Amino acid sequence: MIERFGKEDERLPFELFIFGTGKYEARLLELATQYKEIHMFGWKTIEEIKRYVINCQYCLVPSTFLETFGLTALNALTWGLPVIGYKK
Fold first, then answer.
1. Is 39 strand, coil or helix?
2. Dihedral angle at the C-alpha atoms of 9, 26, 51, 8, nearest 10 degrees?
3. How far is CA 33 from the centre of its chain?
4. Alpha-carbon distance 23 to 1, whole Å?
5. Which of 19, 24, 49, 63 has its CA 20 to 30 A from that of 70?
6. pLDDT digits 0-9 by tens, 1-31
7. What is the per-residue pLDDT across 61-79, written as a single tens digit (0 to 9) for each?
């Protein structure tokens, strides 16, 4: 989806704050160097993540692990963020 924006100097119409690691980490880091609107933080503690919540409009959780998703969703809801995730 992000590939379609093309030019490196082009701005994305959104900002992403990405926390955690996974199989797409290398590609996300590459995109973060290409687009200043993508912020890749890797794994952080809950206390560190709280500092960024004020800049977020929703929480997107693509995790397929139910326990991880559950804790992340509960924290996001506690902070007043709507959660988007798998139906599981």
1. strand
2. 0
3. 15
4. 17
5. 24
6. 455 555 556 788 999 999 988 888 999 999 9
7. 876 655 555 788 888 899 9
